[in-house]
C-alpha cells in the first residue's frame, strides 16, 4: 500500500467518479468529464460484470475509474467502503494521483453536500491503506508500503472535504499505531514521550505528572494500579488552545491508558492476557483526536488527560481487599484488581474536574468485557445523563461511522456500588449489569454540575478479522468520533 496519502495539486492523475446501479449509461452531468478522460468513464460503465453496486470498482482506461454507488442514494458509510476499494485499485494501477470528481454523480442528501461525500471517501482510503510496518523484519512477506498518493478535485469544496477526510483518517491511524505498539516498548513513559512530541509538533502544551507527584496529590487509584510495575505510572495533560476561539466551550477528553493489563493478582487466565496491549486504546483514541483537532485548528479549547499505568504482578502490587483513597477523597474497597481501568480513570476525572473545570467532559475506555456481550463490536456503549452532550456525541458517531448506543445509569446502579468496608467498591459482588457498574463507579468522581459522557469502546476498539476498512488489530475507534464531537462545539 501507499506510505502516504495526502491532498495536493498534481498535474495529472486518474479521474474517479461514481454512478448508481440504476444508471445504464453515463448521465449527462458526467459527459464533459467522460470526454476529458478519453471516454474512460463510459468504458468503465459498460465493462462486463460492472453493475454499479455499492463499492464496486471498474477501470475504464489508464486515466478513468468508476465507483458503484448502489441502488439507494449513497451514504457516508457506502462512500467509505468505496474509498477502501478504490485505494487498493489505485495502488495496483501504480497511480500516484487521483482526481475525485463526485459532483454530478451523487444523489440524495449528499448531492447537496459534496465535501461530506469527499471526506467519507478520503477517510475510507486512509483507513484501508494503513498497516503496522514498524517491525517488518528479515522474514517479512510482501512489499513494504511505498510512494505517495495525492488526492485533488476541480471543486474547491470537494478538495476541502478530501483534506478533512485525510486528516481524520490519519488521526485514527495514529491511534492504531499507538495501540499496536508492543508493551515492551509502549509503557507509561513512552506514552508521555509520544504526547510531548505531538504537542511540540502541533502547537499544544504538555504537562506530565510523575508517579511521585501523583502520590503526593492523593491519586490513590493511579498509584495503586501502577505500583506493581517497574515502569512507574504518570498522568499526561495535553492542551489545545487556539489563538482565536469561536466557542465558550472548554472540553476535556479523558482516555484510559493501561499500557498492559495482566489483571494483577486477579490474574487473567486461559490466554485471556493475549491482546492486553490494546487496553490503552482509549488513550490512543484521545491522542489521535488531539492530532486531528490541532491539525484542523478547531477554534475551541480542548484538554486531553491520559492516566497511564501498567497493571502488573509483583511484591508491590495492590491486592483484593485493599482500601485506597482517591484524589477526591472517596475511599474504594478493591474487590478485583482486574477492574483497574476505572481506578485510573477515576483519579483522572476528579483531577480534570477540579483543575481544568471543563464545560463538558468525555471519557473513553476499553473498560468492560460486558459491553462486548451487550453490543458486540458494532458500536460503543455510552452513558450520559446530559441530553445535550449525548445528542452531540451520538450525531458525531452517526456522521463518522463510529456509532454509540445509550445504556442506563440510574441511582440504583450507583447504590449497587456501595461497599461494606469503604465508600464504594471497584467491582460489585456479581457481574449483573457489568458495563453499567463501570459507569456507576466513575460517576462518583465527576462533578454533577459538569455534563459528562462515558464511552466504553471495548467492542469496536479492535478487530480479529480483516474487513474492507481495517486489517486485524486496533481500529482507532474513537479518534474520529471525539474530533467530530469537538468540531460540533466549534
Notes on the structure:
- The chain is built from 15 helices and 20 strands.
- Helices cover 36% and strands 19% of the residues.
- It has helices at residues 31-36, 40-45, 76-93, 114-129, 156-180, 188-202, 211-217, 220-226, 281-296, 341-355, 370-375, 387-400, 411-416, 434-442, 479-489, and strands spanning 4-7, 14-19, 57-61, 64-68, 97-100, 148-152, 205-209, 234-240, 250-255, 257-261, 301-311, 323-325, 331-333, 360-365, 380-383, 404-406, 424-425, 452-456, 462-463, 473-474.
- The strands form 4 sheets. Strands 7, 8, 9, 10, 11, 14, 15, 16 and 18 form a 9-stranded mixed sheet that branches. The chain has a 6-stranded mixed sheet with strand order 1-6-5-2-4-3. The protein has a 3-stranded mixed sheet with strand order 12-13-17, with helices on one face.
- Helix 9 links the parallel strand 10 (257-261) and strand 11.
- The protein folds into 2 domains: 4-132 and 146-154, Leucine Aminopeptidase, subunit E, domain 1 (3-Layer(aba) Sandwich), CATH 3.40.220.10; 173-489, Aminopeptidase (3-Layer(aba) Sandwich), CATH 3.40.630.
- The mean pLDDT is 95.
- With 490 residues, the protein is of the alpha/beta class.
Query: What does the average pLDDT come to?
Result: 95
Helix coverage percent: 25-40%
CATH classification, class level of the largest domain: Alpha Beta
User: Low-confidence stretches at least 5 residues in length (pLDDT < 50)?
Assistant: none
- What is the name of the CATH superfamily of the largest domain? Zn peptidases
Count of distinct structural domains: 2
Q: Approximately what portion of the residues adopt beta-strand conformation?
A: 15-25%
Structural category is alpha/beta
Question: At the third CATH level, what is the topology name of the largest domain?
Answer: Aminopeptidase
Kindly state the number of beta strands. Answer: 20
Shape: elongated
**Termini separation (Å)?**
35 Å
- Main sheet: strands, sense, barrel: 9 strands, mixed
CATH architecture of the largest domain: 3-Layer(aba) Sandwich
Radius of gyration over C-alpha positions, nearest whole angstrom: 24 Å
Tally the helices.
15
